[in-house]
Design brief:
single chain; mainly alpha; 9 helices; 69% helix
Length: 239
Protein backbone atom coordinates (compact mmCIF):
# COMPACT_ATOMS: atom_id res chain seq x y z
CA UNK A 1 0.00 0.00 0.00
CA UNK A 2 2.66 2.43 0.99
CA UNK A 3 5.39 3.11 -1.52
CA UNK A 4 8.57 1.77 0.11
CA UNK A 5 10.70 3.48 -2.51
CA UNK A 6 10.52 6.89 -0.89
CA UNK A 7 14.29 6.93 -0.95
CA UNK A 8 14.56 5.84 -4.56
CA UNK A 9 16.29 8.20 -6.93
CA UNK A 10 13.40 8.11 -9.36
CA UNK A 11 9.84 6.90 -9.02
CA UNK A 12 8.52 4.42 -11.52
CA UNK A 13 5.54 5.79 -13.44
CA UNK A 14 4.36 2.27 -14.22
CA UNK A 15 4.56 1.03 -10.62
CA UNK A 16 2.65 4.07 -9.40
CA UNK A 17 0.10 3.43 -12.15
CA UNK A 18 -0.27 -0.20 -11.02
CA UNK A 19 -0.77 0.96 -7.46
CA UNK A 20 -3.28 3.59 -8.63
CA UNK A 21 -5.30 1.00 -10.54
CA UNK A 22 -5.28 -1.22 -7.45
CA UNK A 23 -6.54 1.69 -5.34
CA UNK A 24 -9.47 2.24 -7.70
CA UNK A 25 -10.34 -1.46 -7.63
CA UNK A 26 -10.05 -1.47 -3.85
CA UNK A 27 -12.50 1.42 -3.51
CA UNK A 28 -14.91 -0.41 -5.82
CA UNK A 29 -14.54 -3.56 -3.70
CA UNK A 30 -15.14 -1.74 -0.42
CA UNK A 31 -18.04 0.23 -1.91
CA UNK A 32 -19.62 -3.08 -2.89
CA UNK A 33 -18.94 -4.50 0.58
CA UNK A 34 -20.59 -1.45 2.15
CA UNK A 35 -23.64 -2.00 -0.04
CA UNK A 36 -24.13 -5.34 1.72
CA UNK A 37 -23.43 -3.89 5.17
CA UNK A 38 -26.11 -1.23 4.75
CA UNK A 39 -28.57 -3.68 3.20
CA UNK A 40 -28.49 -2.34 -0.36
CA UNK A 41 -27.29 -5.65 -1.83
CA UNK A 42 -27.36 -9.31 -0.79
CA UNK A 43 -24.21 -10.75 -2.40
CA UNK A 44 -21.21 -11.79 -0.30
CA UNK A 45 -17.77 -10.30 -0.96
CA UNK A 46 -16.23 -12.93 1.32
CA UNK A 47 -17.93 -16.03 -0.11
CA UNK A 48 -18.86 -15.42 -3.76
CA UNK A 49 -16.06 -16.72 -5.99
CA UNK A 50 -16.06 -13.68 -8.29
CA UNK A 51 -15.49 -11.36 -5.32
CA UNK A 52 -12.81 -13.64 -3.87
CA UNK A 53 -10.95 -13.51 -7.19
CA UNK A 54 -11.46 -9.76 -7.43
CA UNK A 55 -9.94 -9.26 -3.96
CA UNK A 56 -7.02 -11.56 -4.83
CA UNK A 57 -6.26 -9.42 -7.90
CA UNK A 58 -6.27 -6.25 -5.78
CA UNK A 59 -4.06 -7.68 -3.04
CA UNK A 60 -1.68 -9.20 -5.59
CA UNK A 61 -1.31 -5.85 -7.37
CA UNK A 62 -0.47 -4.01 -4.17
CA UNK A 63 1.99 -6.62 -2.93
CA UNK A 64 3.69 -7.03 -6.30
CA UNK A 65 4.24 -3.25 -6.24
CA UNK A 66 5.72 -3.53 -2.74
CA UNK A 67 8.32 -6.05 -3.93
CA UNK A 68 9.16 -4.11 -7.07
CA UNK A 69 9.44 -0.79 -5.23
CA UNK A 70 11.60 -2.40 -2.57
CA UNK A 71 14.03 -3.66 -5.19
CA UNK A 72 14.17 -0.27 -6.91
CA UNK A 73 14.84 1.51 -3.63
CA UNK A 74 17.35 -0.79 -1.98
CA UNK A 75 19.13 -2.80 -4.66
CA UNK A 76 22.25 -0.60 -4.63
CA UNK A 77 22.40 0.24 -0.96
CA UNK A 78 20.18 -0.10 2.08
CA UNK A 79 19.60 3.14 3.91
CA UNK A 80 18.76 1.68 7.31
CA UNK A 81 17.49 4.94 8.75
CA UNK A 82 14.98 5.46 5.96
CA UNK A 83 13.95 1.81 6.07
CA UNK A 84 13.34 2.07 9.81
CA UNK A 85 11.39 5.27 9.24
CA UNK A 86 9.20 3.60 6.61
CA UNK A 87 8.55 0.53 8.76
CA UNK A 88 7.84 2.70 11.81
CA UNK A 89 5.34 4.74 9.82
CA UNK A 90 3.62 1.59 8.62
CA UNK A 91 3.55 0.17 12.13
CA UNK A 92 1.98 3.35 13.51
CA UNK A 93 -0.66 3.32 10.78
CA UNK A 94 -1.41 -0.37 11.34
CA UNK A 95 -1.91 0.26 15.07
CA UNK A 96 -4.24 3.14 14.23
CA UNK A 97 -6.23 0.80 11.98
CA UNK A 98 -6.40 -1.84 14.70
CA UNK A 99 -7.63 0.68 17.25
CA UNK A 100 -10.15 2.24 14.88
CA UNK A 101 -11.50 -1.13 13.75
CA UNK A 102 -11.84 -2.21 17.40
CA UNK A 103 -14.35 0.57 17.98
CA UNK A 104 -16.13 0.07 14.64
CA UNK A 105 -16.12 -3.74 14.67
CA UNK A 106 -15.51 -4.91 18.27
CA UNK A 107 -16.16 -8.53 17.33
CA UNK A 108 -14.18 -8.50 14.08
CA UNK A 109 -11.41 -5.92 14.53
CA UNK A 110 -8.34 -5.94 12.29
CA UNK A 111 -5.26 -7.54 13.81
CA UNK A 112 -3.32 -8.37 10.61
CA UNK A 113 -4.69 -6.56 7.61
CA UNK A 114 -2.94 -5.32 4.48
CA UNK A 115 -0.96 -2.55 6.22
CA UNK A 116 0.10 -4.89 9.04
CA UNK A 117 1.25 -7.33 6.40
CA UNK A 118 3.25 -4.73 4.45
CA UNK A 119 4.88 -3.63 7.73
CA UNK A 120 6.31 -7.14 8.04
CA UNK A 121 6.83 -7.83 4.33
CA UNK A 122 8.84 -4.68 3.51
CA UNK A 123 11.92 -5.46 5.64
CA UNK A 124 11.74 -9.10 4.56
CA UNK A 125 11.77 -8.08 0.90
CA UNK A 126 14.81 -5.87 1.48
CA UNK A 127 16.74 -8.96 2.63
CA UNK A 128 16.34 -10.40 -0.87
CA UNK A 129 16.99 -7.40 -3.13
CA UNK A 130 20.50 -8.70 -3.78
CA UNK A 131 19.33 -12.30 -4.10
CA UNK A 132 16.41 -12.00 -6.54
CA UNK A 133 16.64 -15.59 -7.79
CA UNK A 134 16.39 -16.90 -4.26
CA UNK A 135 13.43 -14.53 -3.80
CA UNK A 136 11.75 -16.11 -6.82
CA UNK A 137 12.36 -19.66 -5.58
CA UNK A 138 11.08 -18.89 -2.09
CA UNK A 139 8.16 -16.92 -3.52
CA UNK A 140 7.02 -19.81 -5.68
CA UNK A 141 7.69 -22.16 -2.77
CA UNK A 142 5.31 -20.14 -0.59
CA UNK A 143 2.47 -20.80 -3.01
CA UNK A 144 3.32 -24.46 -3.53
CA UNK A 145 3.71 -25.00 0.21
CA UNK A 146 0.47 -23.18 1.00
CA UNK A 147 -1.70 -24.99 -1.54
CA UNK A 148 -0.19 -28.37 -0.61
CA UNK A 149 -0.94 -27.73 3.06
CA UNK A 150 2.71 -27.73 4.17
CA UNK A 151 2.80 -24.01 5.02
CA UNK A 152 -0.26 -23.75 7.23
CA UNK A 153 -0.49 -21.21 10.05
CA UNK A 154 -3.98 -22.34 11.09
CA UNK A 155 -2.72 -23.90 14.37
CA UNK A 156 -1.00 -20.59 15.23
CA UNK A 157 -4.21 -18.71 14.48
CA UNK A 158 -6.25 -21.12 16.61
CA UNK A 159 -3.84 -20.70 19.51
CA UNK A 160 -3.96 -16.92 19.14
CA UNK A 161 -7.76 -16.89 19.22
CA UNK A 162 -7.76 -19.02 22.37
CA UNK A 163 -4.88 -17.35 24.21
CA UNK A 164 -4.40 -13.83 22.85
CA UNK A 165 -8.02 -12.78 22.53
CA UNK A 166 -8.00 -11.97 18.81
CA UNK A 167 -11.42 -12.35 17.16
CA UNK A 168 -12.32 -15.55 15.34
CA UNK A 169 -13.26 -13.43 12.31
CA UNK A 170 -11.98 -10.10 11.08
CA UNK A 171 -13.03 -7.54 8.47
CA UNK A 172 -9.55 -7.59 6.91
CA UNK A 173 -6.99 -10.38 6.98
CA UNK A 174 -3.94 -10.94 4.79
CA UNK A 175 -2.34 -14.23 5.76
CA UNK A 176 1.45 -14.39 5.72
CA UNK A 177 1.35 -17.43 3.45
CA UNK A 178 1.02 -17.37 0.51
CA UNK A 179 1.01 -13.58 0.15
CA UNK A 180 4.64 -13.04 1.13
CA UNK A 181 5.37 -15.02 -2.03
CA UNK A 182 3.88 -12.24 -4.19
CA UNK A 183 6.18 -9.65 -2.59
CA UNK A 184 9.26 -11.80 -3.18
CA UNK A 185 8.24 -12.51 -6.77
CA UNK A 186 7.91 -8.74 -7.21
CA UNK A 187 11.58 -8.40 -6.25
CA UNK A 188 12.53 -10.82 -9.03
CA UNK A 189 10.19 -9.19 -11.54
CA UNK A 190 11.90 -5.83 -11.02
CA UNK A 191 15.38 -7.39 -11.15
CA UNK A 192 14.68 -9.02 -14.52
CA UNK A 193 12.92 -5.89 -15.78
CA UNK A 194 9.84 -7.95 -16.58
CA UNK A 195 7.59 -5.04 -15.73
CA UNK A 196 8.59 -3.02 -18.77
CA UNK A 197 5.17 -2.05 -20.07
CA UNK A 198 5.72 1.52 -21.11
CA UNK A 199 2.46 3.38 -20.73
CA UNK A 200 1.71 6.34 -22.91
CA UNK A 201 0.88 9.14 -20.54
CA UNK A 202 -2.61 10.58 -20.62
CA UNK A 203 -4.89 12.58 -18.38
CA UNK A 204 -6.39 9.37 -16.99
CA UNK A 205 -3.10 7.58 -16.40
CA UNK A 206 -1.61 10.69 -14.78
CA UNK A 207 -4.52 10.82 -12.33
CA UNK A 208 -4.11 7.13 -11.55
CA UNK A 209 -0.41 7.70 -10.89
CA UNK A 210 -1.29 10.46 -8.42
CA UNK A 211 -3.63 8.05 -6.65
CA UNK A 212 -0.84 5.50 -6.55
CA UNK A 213 1.55 8.00 -5.02
CA UNK A 214 -0.94 8.68 -2.21
CA UNK A 215 -2.28 5.16 -1.79
CA UNK A 216 -1.72 4.96 1.96
CA UNK A 217 -3.70 8.13 2.67
CA UNK A 218 -6.50 7.02 0.35
CA UNK A 219 -6.58 3.65 2.06
CA UNK A 220 -7.01 5.31 5.44
CA UNK A 221 -9.76 7.78 4.53
CA UNK A 222 -11.87 6.09 1.87
CA UNK A 223 -13.84 3.75 4.13
CA UNK A 224 -14.82 6.41 6.70
CA UNK A 225 -15.97 8.58 3.79
CA UNK A 226 -17.97 5.74 2.24
CA UNK A 227 -19.49 4.80 5.59
CA UNK A 228 -20.44 8.42 6.20
CA UNK A 229 -22.07 8.75 2.78
CA UNK A 230 -24.01 5.51 3.18
CA UNK A 231 -25.12 6.50 6.68
CA UNK A 232 -26.18 9.95 5.48
CA UNK A 233 -28.12 8.39 2.61
CA UNK A 234 -29.93 6.09 5.03
CA UNK A 235 -30.89 9.07 7.20
CA UNK A 236 -32.12 11.10 4.21
CA UNK A 237 -34.18 8.19 2.89
CA UNK A 238 -35.39 7.26 6.35
CA UNK A 239 -34.21 3.68 6.06
Amino acid sequence: MINPSNNARKRSYEIDLLRGLAIVLMVIFHFSYDLTVFGWADFSTSKDIEWIIFRAVIVSSFLLAVGMSSYSAYQKSVNKNKLIKSVSKLFAVSMFITLGSFFMHPNAWVYFGIIHFVTVALPISVLFVRAPYIALIIGIGCFVGFWSGILNLYPVWQWSVSNLGIPSRTVDLVSFFPWIGVVLIGVFVMHKELFQVKVKTSAISDKLVILGQHSLVIYLIHQPILYGLFGLTDIILGR
